[in-house]
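Progress against Task 2.4 (sequence-to-structure conversion) is shown through the following example record, which the project officer requested during the mid-term review.
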Amino acid sequence: MIRRLVDFFGDARYAVPRRRLFYLSLVIVFVADFLVPREHAEYFWERIPGWSALYGFTSCVLLIFVSKFLGHQGGLMRREDYYG
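Structure tokens generated for the chain above:
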């Protein structure tokens, strides 16, 4: 079971099904956000349907780009043989 799961997420031949599964999960999260009651929202943007999905996706993408920038341009990343 674990081997099949690792092969699915690691093998290049499963790239198209992985991408479709990813898009399907994004659509499900976006649609589910329309079903959440919003009567106790404190800020106006919390009443916008799809806001939490968009905010979460944008935050993840921004976190990835900032960490890549800090690692490569900020000097935090070292060569493999740095200590060798």
